[in-house]
Amino acid sequence: MGAVAPSTVTEEQVLAALREIIDPDLHRDIVSLGMIKDLRIVGGDVAFTFELTTPACPVRNQFEAAARDAVAAVPGVEHVDVKMSAQVRQAGRGRTGNQLQLPGIRNIIAVASGKGGVGKSTVAANLAAALAQSGAMVGLLDADVYGPSVPQVMGIRDGIRAEEGRMVPNEAHGVKLISLGFIAGDKPVMWRGPMIGHALKQLLEDVNWGELDYLVVDLPPGTGDAQLSLTQLIPITGVIVVSTPQDLALGIASKALQMFRQLHVPILGFVENMSTFRCPDCGHDSHIFGTGGARAAAESLHVPFLGELPLDTAIRESGDCGVPVVVETPDSAAGQALKGIAQKAAAQVSIRTAQTIPLVVR
Ligand SMILES: Nc1ncnc2c1ncn2[C@@H]1O[C@H](COP(=O)(O)OP(=O)(O)OP(=O)(O)O)[C@@H](O)[C@H]1O
Ligand SMILES: [Mg+2]
């Protein structure tokens, strides 16, 4: 009788173990979602790449640990090498008409609100910066003609530059930025829907954005002509509606949600801003408008709830000095809340794109 032959680990065994891991957002296993790449097995050594659908994946660490543990439990496996990576996929563009094609731009996230001054630009700038921090290629388009403030929030004052005959975006905090305000200048312009559409078309088609995983668009506030023409022009992956607790109480937020539903623009979720007041002296939170209302409202409106943002002087100060909170104080409560909102938004985009991904059969 010779020595017992070492057991050989097979690809089927490893994939079967990994198939037990279900993506909590996509409700499918990670193998059939095509997330496992470059599987190599040498004796008891197993190596593979775990390719997420967004670098801003909220469960990245849990995924990595689960994959490592699942494979380590396969008989005969001695060493597991998991490499985490991300490839943002493009949402299917089913809608036709006069919509722009924009081939280099994988996903467009619009940030909207039922009325002005609710923190839309703040959320848009921090969302873009947080996605860029996670490693994604991100652009930010300030389409708010009535009061373009994104350049201020991002700390950019220059207009558009030209390079080799094409317009190039400015860059700040890892985000490529263009504002309609760069075209309008300081003059208060009375824009009408078609004019906005025309200017925006120019900014999207004539600007060299390069490749983008996400283009965040700060829409003008409200539910009028401008929003209508923008949503008809841009193939929006989904919209984030920002509201304050008052908008919720007055039904303004639900009116905005309804408008996007009627336009067949998918809703990624909603964000409640200024939900609690954080005292700058003692750090105490006051729930001026009560708590839990936003989450409950999201539920009754059947939209995902992406998170709430406290009323915090640090948010206004960072906006004034041109450095988003997620860059300036990423570990603060506001920074963490905004990062969480960005992760949840990215996960919602992945859910939209997954609906158009065919199953991988291996
Ligand atoms: N959670 C917050 N805490 C403190 N200040 C905030 C908060 N959110 C926004 N702000 C401040 O409120 C003001 C309005 O915010 P912001 O410009 O982001 O709103 P908006 O919805 O884009 O407004 P507009 O409709 O004018 O475009 C800004 O000065 C901003 O810094
Ligand atoms: Mg704004």
Walkthrough of the structure:
It is a single chain. With 362 residues, the protein is an alpha/beta fold. It folds into two domains: 11-86, Fe-S cluster assembly (FSCA) (GMP Synthetase, Chain A, domain 3, 2-Layer Sandwich), CATH 3.30.300; 105-354, Rossmann fold (3-Layer(aba) Sandwich). Helix content is 35%, strand content 23%. It has 13 helices and 14 strands. The protein has helices at residues 11-18, 60-72, 120-133, 150-154, 180-184, 193-205, 225-233, 245-250, 252-262, 293-301, 313-321, 325-328, 333-354; strands spanning 36-42, 45-52, 79-86, 105-113, 138-142, 161-163, 166-168, 170-172, 175-179, 212-218, 238-243, 267-278, 285-286, 305-311. The strands form three sheets. Strands 4, 5, 8, 9, 10, 11, 12, 13 and 14 form a nine-stranded mixed β-sheet that branches. A hairpin with a 2-residue loop joins strand 1 (36-42) and strand 2 (45-52). The longest helix is centred in the last third of the chain and has 22 residues, at 333-354. The two termini are 38 Å apart. Bound molecules: adenosine-5'-triphosphate and magnesium ion. Magnesium ion is lined by residues 120-121, 144, 147, 149, 218.
